[in-house]
Amino acid sequence: MAATLEAKPGPLPWPRLGRALLAVLRVALALILIAALTFVCVRLIPVNATTAGFGYLVVILVIATAWGLLEATIASIVAMLCFNYFFFPPIGTFTVADPQNWVALVAFLATSITASQLSARAKRRTREAVERQREMERLYAVSRAILLTEAKQSAAKQIAHQIAHAFGFPAVALYDRNSDEIHRAGPEDLPDVDDKLRATAIEGTLFRDPTSQLTIDSIRLGGDPIGSIAFRGAPLSDTALQALSNLVAIGLEKARSQEAANRAEAARQSQELKSTLLDAIAHEFKTPLTSIKAATTSLLSDPLSESAERGELLRVVEEEADRLTRLVTEALQTARIEAGKLQLNRELHSAGSLMATALGHVKALMEGRNVQVETAENLPPLFVDADLIQLAIRQLIGNALKYSLPTVPVTIAARATERGVAITVSDRGPGIPEDEQARIFEKFYRGSGDRHQVTGTGLGLAIAREVIRAHGGDVSVRSVPGQGSEFSISLPAAPEEKRV
Questions:
Q1: Is pTM beyond 0.90 here?
Q2: Which SS3 state, helix, strand or coil, does residue 492 take?
Q3: Among 13, 161, 173, 493, which residue is least crowded by beta carbons within 10 Å?
């Protein structure tokens, strides 16, 4: 069991002085109530001793219920004296002539004090029950917040803020031993607690300072210290404090487990990406390599062929070599995006030139297809990385050409928006079901209707979205099954200072 260190009491702080003055005021009010009842029973409505005794007893019970045992005990003694002075003969003196009256006075005093104790005890237990209920409600709020912690932010920092908010502590400090970081929360600060937090985490001690209302407790998981917590505010019961420490330990361990799972998933996805890229590259390289092989074989087998035929074969070699170069470039960009090493080489470009270059790169797919290009006038310039934007546009155009029938047209359009330029690629293909539209930008995801009919890796739209978001824009889709789809790229206009 963890040891408990109690701080030595210091000078009386203002809060304690205020509580002492409040206690004195309550005692004074209790005495005033006894005096008022005595005045009523003696002057205004003269009553006998029995009635006065019951009146005193009722007032004492009210005082015990409203304030506490101290005020009720003092009121009991004063009421006994008033009872003797005003109602027991000889009246007007503190002398008791009849011995039976001594019995009555002692019984009255004992009854008053006993009733005060019972009432104060019931009040104290009620208050403790209410405090325990509040502690349980706050612990529940903290546990719920721990379950809902966001992976994007530090779990320890979120837990510290939730504890400060749920319990109303003005200052909270949470030490995570794994990262050796201290996270603070609350409107106030806890100065000079860093060393105590680290020592408490190692020694497993509990430190309380009643003067400053500071509590520092260790956080353990399976007997091993993993951190410590410090807070200033109303002290918690030992049960609530232990429960809070356990919740924090569970929250920190949950965050660590989630981080480990995320790392494992990232490693798995990275490996899957590498395998998919290798498969895609191998598949995509077959067509241009076959064309190059056929052209070079023809040239080597008939070196004296006519110049026109030779030129045609050399153009095939050149086009397919360019296609191989683009495939390698796209594979490298995909790997950089996945590794988080995407670098933007921004320059001023027009939307029309970006679209024209992207269309030139997919010329082989456009043979025999009706591709309509619509470019609005007076489009603002774009400050972008041309290679990456063209890569994103090519992905959308390639999808539109692959997933729509050769007899239907594909439209590529550019128009101005409030923020910059929108480039849309529309087709009249089969469309995308509504339940799949939210997932088509996920890596490796492909539509259920076409995944076995059209070749691909499921990375094109994910790459396009990452590229556009890196430029401060976004990609969206509108689709009606059976009527076609429209993908839209929104890009911000170039800043004024870049247009010079």
A1: no
A2: strand
A3: 13
